Amino acid sequence: MRSESASPARAQRRRAAGNLQDNRDVRSGIWIVHTMDGDHRIPLLGDLRHEHFYLTEGDPAVDVSEYVLEPIVTTLDDGSDKPLRFDCIVTRLDGSRSCRRVAERRLDPSNDKDAHLIERYSVAARRLGGKFEEVTAANLDAASMRISNWNRVMGAYLRCRGRSLRVIDALISAHVPGGSEIAMGAVLDRLSDQPRALLFASVAHLLRRRQLGSDLDDRPWSRNTLLSRRTS
Q1: 158-181: buried (b, 16+ CB within 10 Å) or exposed (e) per residue?
Q2: In CATH, what number is assigned to the domain containing residue 76?
Q3: 23 versus 120: which is more confidently predicted?
Q4: Cross-strand pairs, 214
Q5: Disulfide-capable partner of 71 in 26, 83, 172, 192 (CB 3.0 to 4.6 Å)?
Q6: pTM of the prediction?
Q7: Average pLDDT over residues 137-156
Q8: How far apart are CA 163 and CA 159, in angstroms?
Q9: Which of 147, 216, 197, 203 is nearest to 171 (CA)?
Q10: What's the structural domain count of the chain?
Q11: What is the tens place of the pLDDT at every residue in 97-109?
Q12: Nearest by Cα to 89 from 107, 70, 112
C-alpha cells in the first residue's frame, strides 16, 4: 500500500494548497480548513481528508456536508472493536445521504477483518439515514482538477469573509443567462464598477450554494471558466 506522500500529483496539490488559505501542522499532519457555511474551522487529519474536503465542496450534487462527527457504536461491535467515526456525511440535492470513509484503499470484503468493518460501517450508515461509501486515493487522483480548482474557489470566497455578498450575488445571478453558458470574465467585465475581489467571492458563493454551475471539473478556474444558471 502506498503512502499518502507517494503520489506526485498529491504532493503538487499539497504545495499549491499551502500557498492558499489552509494551514497545515507539519508535525501532526492536521489541516485547518474553512467552510462557507458560517466560516467554520474544521481540522482534517492528513492529505487524503484535506483533498476530500474540496472534492465534496465542489461536487455540484452535494447540498450539505458534515465533517466533525461523533464516534458510533454498532450492534455488531465486539469487545475488541473501537467506535467507528465517519470522515464525512453528505446530503445531496436529491435528498440521498452518504456516510463516507476516506482512506488510501478500499476495504477488502474477502478479508475477514475488513468484511467485519464493512458490515459495521454499513449498519452505522443506515442508522444515520445514509449509505456507506468509500473514497480512496484513486478517486481523489481522478478528480484532481476539481480539487485544485475548489481550493482556489474557496480561497476567493474566504478572502472576503465577513463582507456582505447579498447585492453582488444578485448582480452576478442577473448576468448569467438561463439555458446557456457565459465566461466568468464576461460577467466580471460587465460589473467592472464593483470590487473585483467581491465579484470572485460572489461567484464562489453562488457555486457552493449550487445556484450556478460551471466546468470546474474539466478546466482550470480562470476568467474563461464557464458559468451557467442552475434551475433546480
Answers
A1: bebeeeebeebbebbeebbeeeee
A2: 3.40.1350.10
A3: 120
A4: 227
A5: 83
A6: 0.89
A7: 96
A8: 9
A9: 203
A10: 2
A11: 999 999 999 999 9
A12: 70
